[in-house]
Write the structure tokens for this entry.
Amino acid sequence: MAPMATGTIPAVHSSVETLDDHRVKLTIELDEAEFETEIEAAFRRIAREVRIPGFRPGKAPRRLLEAQLGHQAGRAEALRSSLPDFYARAVVEHDVDVIDTPEIEITGGAESGPVCFDAVVDVRPAVTVSGYDELSVQIPSPLVDEAEITGEIDRFRQQFAELSPVSRAAADGDHLTIDITGRLGGETIDGLTTSDYDYLLGTGAVVPEIDENLRGSAPGDILEFTAAHPDPEEDDRLSFRVLVKEVQETVLPALDDDFVSSNTEYGTVEEFRATLEAGQSRAKTMYAASARLEAIADAVAALVTVDVPDAMVAAEVETRVAGITRDLAQRGHELDDYLNSIGQSREDFEAGARISADRSVRLDLALRAVAAAEGLEADEDALDAELEQVVLAASRRSPSDSGEVDAAAEAVRLREALAASGQLSTMRSEISKRSALEWITERVELVDPDGESIDPELLKLPEPEDPGAPEGSLADVSAPDVGDDGGNPQDGVADQSQDAT
């Protein structure tokens, strides 16, 4: 058992004792005079609820209520309503990091006299972790491959491509004009029968066997073959007869300054390529930086190998579900209706939320452990700086009509308010965890999927030479809607987890 720590609130005495299994016991004692004020307030509340002939609601005197209901009615109501508040005040006084609802037991004063009660509650466990100073995580490379830029330009040129007949054998990427007849059980299938059909070889449309037979064909060839029916319950095979009428290759326009200036907002090929490369570099850098944050969060959370308190996970799940429910409500949707629309059950949704919440709890405990081990706890200077930043951020969101905000004075008032509500320790912890994450991030080894080391400096976004210049995306380049554009939408950047902060 740890030694008992004591503190004093006027007319209220409290102490805290550390128990086993990350639990503490708060003992709170109220003298008789202090609790008498609670009883008096309780009878005033009762008076508003009880109808006494001859008295308006809330005006019946206490002595009459005691005669009607018994003198214990006020004490019982006072115990019910005031004990949670006295418990909360003791939690703040002793800076207890509780993670669950307490078990309260009245040990004295249930009938008369001073009141004493115990509150046993789970607290956030302190864990130790190792290996955080030698982590290695894999992320996508932020480097731009020249082939990626060339491919992006070629996809743009594809929009202006022309088709030219060839006499050679057909290859993937060629356009073939064909007559095709498809049959099943000797009966012609309308959906598989047509004339002068423009088929892009290599797309695998209809059935794979069409591409397999058309590769290497030439104008005038007649191809007959069978293929499995797309419906697995259909035993009969499809039969095809294809007449190749023409083979055409795609001819891209020459990539020169005239083409670029005529079809883009850029004047030269060099400028066009450089702008695309800058945009691609920015996108890949942002994606790699986001991936680094996620990878580090996963790696640090995995350092906590002990079981984490279910109360912490449950609370995190509840917070996440409440947040999503609130966001959907702002858009006029119900959570269950939304889940039904995407084909997900409430059970699967909450199971997914629990997996994410478990990682969040482990990450929280690990970062606290690193902060403690490396002496990164927030000192008074760090706390004052954070408070001033909060004040300044609030003033920017809601400018004051009275002029410039005195950030230092407002920070003092904010500190007092947070201390009174028990939130100051939470802010200290957030600063410490952020420092721990920065400490780890500075030391973690980054490797690409091939195992090659990545310089962290590459994850810093480059400053544009001309802030007014276009970002360099093909989405900004206009082109006529002709031919097969061969477009390839880019993957979105992964959401950054908020767990780390």
The first helix runs from residue 32 to 49. The chain has three domains: 5-122, 162-251, 261-476. The two ends are 33 Å apart (CA to CA). Residues 1-10, 466-501 have pLDDT under 50 and may be disordered.
